[in-house]
Amino acid sequence: MKNRVLLLPEQMEEIVAMMKLTKVIREYRRLQAIYLYGTNQPLEEIMRLTHLGNSTISGLYCRYQLIGLKCIPDAKRSGRPKRLTSKQEAQLRDAVLNKTPVDVGFAADFDWTAGLAAAYIKKEYGYEYSIKGVTLIFKRLNLTFTRPTYMLAKADFEKQEQFRKEFKMIKKSWKTTKSNMFFSATNL
Predict the structure, then answer these.
(1) Which of 1, 22, 53, 96 would bridge with 27, disulfide CB 3.0–4.6 Å?
(2) Which residues of the chain have pLDDT under 50?
(3) What are phi and psi of 147, to 5 degrees?
């Protein structure tokens, strides 16, 4: 078996400091494996504690010796390419912001939902999206979900205003009564 190159005290301090700072479990396990390997712990024990394989642990340690702590974070992943072009996304955003589903040929729905947007994308661009996929597109387009607030067409504004004033007075009198009850109970 090859002799390990052990960690220097300043390297151990650096690794321990990073272990305290990281909030990503994968990075913590990698740091832990490097630390334990560099302090000459048995490989089987390191594998048991970190749930990493033999070759992963030795590979991590070698990379750490070559490039330092840059080997710890995951590399950026590009993910799946977008299916909608930027122009199509702009058209979708415009439709959601400025038109109702009725305006673009759907039944009497007045509010956009992720399901309706998925149907719109299928109809206009031929791509099928799940509800979750549409919500991710909306997030990327800086669109947020809100519940619509409806105004009653026949509502009497003056009666509503009168109710609000009366309700505020009731709340104030309740708070006063409640606080008086507290003080009268403590004075007994």
Answers:
(1) 22
(2) 1, 183-188
(3) -85, 135
